[in-house]
Amino acid sequence: MRRQTFLAGSWSSADYDLPAPQQSPELSQRGATPHRVIARGYRLRTLKSALIASLLALLLGAGAAWLWLHQPLSMSTQALELSIEPGTPPRRIAEDWVTGGVQTPPWLLYQWFRWSGDAKRIRAGSYQIDRPTTPIGLLEMMVSGNETMAFVRLTEGWTLSQVRAELARAEALKPLTATMSNTELMAALGDGATPAEGRFFPDTYSYSKGSSDLAVLRRAHRAMKQRLEAAWAERSADTPLRSADELLTLASIVEKETGSPADRGKVAAVFTNRLRLGMPLQTDPSVIYGVGESFDGNLRRRDLQKDTPYNTYTRAGLPPTPIAMPGKAALLAAVHPQPIKALYFVARGDGSSEFSDDLAAHNRAVNKYQRGR
User: Fold this and answer.
1) Global confidence as pTM
2) Statement: residue 52 has pLDDT above 80
3) Residue 60 to residue 363: CA distance in whole angstroms
4) Most buried by CB count within 10 Å: which residue of 1, 81, 230, 239?
């Protein structure tokens, strides 16, 4: 065997008759080296780890989101109320809830509104939560329109002046009509050529807090129009009334003159009979309406003698406009008066009235119930 002196790293396989290292056919075909295969395997393991980490983060995020959506939101006060104006953007709604006392990031609440797909379905109105609710429950409340409602009662027999005063006192009702005249009010309702008195139906109206008095009046105006049209359609062929407007005016007088509901049809009959005969109606409430704000509660002889468009002692026929708001019963009584011949009536003092067919009988009733004779 030959002796060979060598330095480290300078030997050759030929010196020891060793076979040269062979590259695998697979690596040879791919043009890869062992070092390249190792690097590629490392990258695959890194990518796999990243995917697993991302999946875990996604699952954790989804779990946190599910928990947030189903867990009641903390509140800084026992009850929260929010009024949403028409056109308020969802981002502002979320911010307003948080400002009002809902304890959650406003951006998170807004993103929930967006992600749900219901952001554009949130309805304007006034909403109240008196106990903690979930983000899901909060959104459902606003989408379904489950609002906090307030109520205002417009009473039969009220004048428009009384109606407007009541609306001015109503809770959380915006006074959009406060500076409007009656003519301007009717114009805003699209009925500018019609006198305003009596054109609103007496009823209890609900409204969301933050609504306007004009919105309530619009509903009352529409309701009276519908009721009046329905009543006029039921009129008898022999009615002395020539129009639905005259029906409304007569019904307003019946409303003011009726003490007992049982007498309403008889009261309507007295005035209907007088209209047929061309007699003055001689109704005190109409005279009082003509006196106006100066009326002090005591109707005097000089008031009955002073001629005004509403003095039904000095003028025949109906006054030029209604004198109050009639209810449904008064409207129907005016088109369906009881079939009696009475021309007079006097209060008995208990809310009911005594009806008479002629003046002599009426004078006796007056002496009995008014003068105690």
Assistant:
1) 0.71
2) no
3) 93
4) 239
